[in-house]
Amino acid sequence: MKRITWTIVAFCLLLAKPVAGQEAKPNSTLINNVQIFDGRNVIASSGAVRIEDDRIAQVSSTQLEPLLGEMVIDGKGRFLMPGLIDAHVHVSWAFPFSKADQANESYVTAGAVANASAMLKRGFTTVRDTAGTDYGLAMAIDDGVVQGPRIIFTGRSISQTGGHADHRKINEKPSNSLIHGFGSTIADGEAEVIKAAREELRRGAYFIKIHAGGGVSSPTDPLHSVQYSFEEMQAAVQTAADRGTYVAAHAYTPESISRALNAGVKTIEHGNMIDKKTAELAARKGAFVVPNLITYWAMDKAPGMPPYIKAKNKTALDAMTDALKLLKEAGVKIAFGTDLIANMHPLQNQEFLLRTQAFTPLEILRQATSVNASLIALSGRNNPYGKLGVIEAGAVADIILIDGNPLENMTLMSKPETAFSLIMKDGKIVK
Ligand code: ZN
Ligand code: ZN
Fold it and tell me: For residues 74 and 66, what is the distance between their CA atoms, to the nearest angstrom?
């Protein structure tokens, strides 16, 4: 009996004290006593995560003993999960489109810097920028010049004349080839599409984005329009594949989505008006669809929108509920994206709440972590950052701690300023 008591005492002492002789690395942090969601499932109710430099070094389903000299954070039973990933953002579109004509580059950059910092504070440690942002801002963040999520950017998106990224009004001049517009290039014919794609890849783009059909915010293309011929799309896909990466396509309708999928496009952005047959095609092709609910919801409520935007937005918004159901039933890989612009960016985390109409909390958290990470991994060797969106040894140390369990209360995800008690990116605490 006595012996057992002493064993318990000795064990408790061991728990309380750092392990003698085992010194921690200089930048070693232990987060103890946390519920762990690893990006796929809850794997511990009171576990621990050890971080060394910018990587996760150890994940344990039980609490761990601190090493000598290690920084220890008592998680107090909080919910630990991977840093969030948003697969469809426009970091550099921090101002209203009406200002784009007058704004110079420093104005745009100042807005983008503020926007990036705010996204990080909302728990997003990685974002995929689907037009507008280039290597300059991504590099400034990587180098620690400014704070923000790491940005997986496409640079300028590629659009046909009169397509979704052709922002000219009906009375403006005809286009010369390869006009560089507002975060986009206008390119027609295979040769121009190839040149535009190569140009973005030269400028460090992680992937190529094309516009395969009509969009909400553009003045001259109806939503039902299909944009780019099959051959033009294939030319973009081949150019991207030669560089070891893929093509993303903005598309709403079954016609534009199926043409893009058959040409080899790997991610469909939006997909609002998809039908059963096309959803099944997306599943068969193993493609991702990136819906964004919050942007249509916000645009619907935004004051002062031109009537043509308002009408197109309503069509896209109304179709969304059915689309999500069809995508889910077909077993399509559904990513998490928001697509907000201008002063709507602060609504980013409301996407979590809107998704509860179609998905379980577990599905939503997976979408914003491990599913989005596998989408980003489509960039292959072009992505230098390592394993993202999961809590496991060797992965990048992007971690958030939440006061409460979002699997039981999704509202927590929509209130990062109060509910997220810790945000860590690359092993560094940023909040
Ligand atoms: Zn779009
Ligand atoms: Zn977008």
Answer: 11
Tell me which residue of 362, 352, 344, 325 sits closest to 415, measured CA to CA.
352
Cβ-in-10-Å burial (0-12, 13-18, 19+) of 384 comes to exposed
pLDDT band of residue 16 (cuts 50, 70, 90) is very low
pLDDT per residue as tens digits for the range 173-189 = 765 445 556 689 999 99
User: What does 137-192 look like in DSSP terms, one character per residue?
Assistant: HHHHHHTTSS---EEEE--SEEE-TTSTT----TTSPPP-TTEE-SSEEE--HHHH
pLDDT score of 1 more than 60:
no
Taking the centre of ligand 1 as the mean of its atom positions, its distance from the CA of residue 421, in whole angstroms, is 33
Mean pLDDT computed over 66-71:
95
Ligand at shortest distance from the CA of 87 = 2
- Report how far residue 111's alpha carbon sits from residue 328's, in angstroms, rounded to the nearest whole number: 36
Q: Is the pLDDT of residue 64 over 70?
A: yes
Please, what is the Cα angle at 318 between 316 and 323, to 5 degrees?
80
Return the pLDDT at 415.
98
CATH, range 18-82+390-429? 2.30.40.10
> Given a cut of 90, is residue 34 above it in pLDDT?
yes
Question: What gap in Å lies between CA 377 and CA 244, rounded to an integer?
Answer: 11
Q: What is the DSSP string of 351-382?
A: HHHHGGGTS-HHHHHHIIIIIHHHHHGGGGGG
- The pTM for the full model equals 0.93
In the chain, where the domains are located: 18-82+390-429, 84-357
Q: What is the pLDDT of residues 342-380, one digit of tens each?
A: 899 999 999 999 999 999 999 999 999 999 999 999 998
Ligand 1 center–CA 215 separation, angstroms: 6
Question: What residues have a C-beta under 5 A from ligand 2, the ion?
Answer: 130, 339
| Topology agreement, domain 18-82+390-429 and domain 84-357 | no
Name the token pair of 402.
Answer: 């939440």
Q: How far apart are CA 9 and CA 309, in angstroms?
A: 70
14's CB contacts (< 8 A; 6+ apart) are 65
Report residue 382 as tokens. Answer: 């072009």
Handedness of CA 200, 201, 205, 208 (dihedral sign): positive
Which numbered ligand comes closest to the C-alpha of 294?
2
* pLDDT band for position 73 (cuts 50, 70, 90): very high
CATH fold for domain 84-357: TIM Barrel (3.20.20)
Determine the distance separating the centroid of ligand 2 and the alpha carbon of 38, expressed in angstroms.
28
